[in-house]
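Notes from hallway chat w/ T.B., transcribed later so I don't forget. T.B. wanted the structure written out for a chain they're using in a teaching module, and asked if we could keep both sequence and structure tokens in one place. Agreed to drop them here.
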Amino acid sequence: MNLEDLAKKTISEVSSIMEEQRRQNEILKEQELSRKTEIKDELPPMEFVCEELDTPQDLEDKISMAKFEEEQKIQNNIEISTQENKEFKKEEPFL
């Protein structure tokens, strides 16, 4: 076998390998597309929920309510602390 025949044989083998790889690549692409389609079919349809946006007045009302609630909590804590302090002083013996 001479060099030219060897080169032709090598080129033929490489071409065959490349063609096989191309076919396998096509098969993989088809499988991937099929998987994506199956996944897409399995997923429930997306639902978009539109909520009404708060108006500036609504936001101000929410802020005011949050401030009021926070002030109430602080006032309650102060009252509880004051009451506990009074009770503690009553229990404290004088020496």
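Follow-up for T.B.: The chain has a mean pLDDT of 85. Might be a good example for the class.
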